[in-house]
Amino acid sequence: QVQLVESGGGLVQAGGSLTLSCTISGITMGDYSMGWFRKPPGLEREGVAMIDSAGSPTYHHSVKGRFAISRVDGDNSLVLVMNSLKPADTGVYYCAADVGPLMKIVVETGAVAREADFAYWGQGTQVNVSS
Questions:
Q1: Non-local CB neighbours of 7 within 8 Å, separated by 6+ positions
Q2: Does residue 50 have a pLDDT over 90?
Q3: What is the CA radius of gyration of the chain?
Q4: How many angstroms separate the CA atoms of 18 and 45, rounded?
Q5: Which terminus, N or C, of the chain has the lesser number of Cβ atoms within 10 Å?
Q6: Which is more confident, 7 or 100?
C-alpha cells in the first residue's frame, strides 16, 4: 500500500518560516518525481515546487527564492523549507508522486493540480500565515 504522509504544518506570522516533511512508503521513491502542492481557501489546488528523480527542482514563480524543496530517497522523505512566509501562502499543503513530465509543467505554469493528474497524494497538512 502506497502512503504519503505530510507533517510540519502550523500557524506562523508573516515573515516566519516552516518546514514541511513528507514520508513516503510503498513505492521506490527514486523512480518518481515528487512535488508539493497547496490549496488556498476558496481556490483550486496549485503547484508550489517539484523535484525530479535526478534531483532537479522547479518552483512556481510565487515562491521562487523563498521556498526550497529537497529529497532524500534513502530516507523516503521529501522536505519543503518555507521562508519569508506571506498570508497568501496559507492553505493545505499536499505532497504528490508521479512519473512523466506533467508535474513540472503544472508547477511551472501554475495550472490547477487535479487529483487525477498524479499517481499518489498525501492527505495534506494545514499552513496558516497570519498578517
A1: 20, 21, 22, 23, 125
A2: yes
A3: 13
A4: 20
A5: N
A6: 7
